[in-house]
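Structure Section — protein described below
Tokens — whole-number codes for backbone shape
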Amino acid sequence: MTWFEALTLAVIQGLTEFLPVSSSGHLAVAASLFQSLGTVEDRPDGLFFVVMLHLGTLLAILVFYRRVMRSGAHSLATGGGDPGMPPRAVVLRSGLLAAIATLPAVVVGLTLKRAVDEAFDNPIVPGFAFLVTAALLLSTTRMAAGQKGPAETTWLDALLVGLAQAIAITPGISRSGSTIAAALALGFSRTWAVGFSLLINVPAILGATVLVGKDLRLESLSTEVLEMTILATILSGVVGYGAIVWLVRIVRSGRLWYFSVYLVLLSGVVLGSAALSGRGEVSGGMTDEQGGRPEALDRPGGGGLARSGPRAEGAGDHLDRADAAGPRPPGPSARDGAGPARL
């Protein structure tokens, strides 16, 4: 992977992790384009690169909500009696609501992993799923602004938003788009809808990082790989922070549907490419005969990013759901092997 490709993927990850357009789908398309040039290699360095890229976007959430987290920590320590500080009960309730909302994604991911892996092998699925996301975003135009905050949100509300997140295990369905749309439909205030969507994204990224991070082998990383990965991580975090700011403004203004226009156009490009190629995958991708199915860190649930185990020479995985084939120059890419690992 070249510096240009690494930084391009960092920008795409930073933008699409939070904007309601499906980050895994965009990274797959970008990596597929790089594959057609024969520049995405299959090396263990790729797992390190992808994990760090997602940690960069996680850092963006923590920085954006640093004051909220500081207030919450202060309330937990002191009881929340200070002026301007949330009550301790509200802080604890928010954490429990996030835990409840995370459960459906874990269950669905573990039980439907095989079907999801197969879906990622065929771009027709994300091509149509982009349209589903577009429809969800369009539906928000008919939703009046609600008044629910953390204190008014019920356990059932959290579970339903969690189910919406679980649906986003399908490639092309946006996690943020589906959860924010569900939250607005349940009467969440616009600010709390965005906040809760980002809140439940934290355990998803952390869980996935722990699962795939235990398989990292860092001893073989070159200086260039480390430099490239560090810069890409910082870039994904900076871009991700800007994407969060943009997302909050768009949701508050009730213009979330703007992204549906883009998704309809993107769906046409993806489905058109699949039709022109005459195959069930985007030109430049790989089938199971060439290598193992790709995995994505973005998607909620139990899917995996990387696989472990031997495979034939020349087979390749890809970065967030795109495959690669043939010998490559050294650089960060998806980790060799086969075997799932994902929250």
About this structure: Confidence is low (pLDDT under 50) at residues 37-44, 281-343. The chain has 13 helices and no strands.
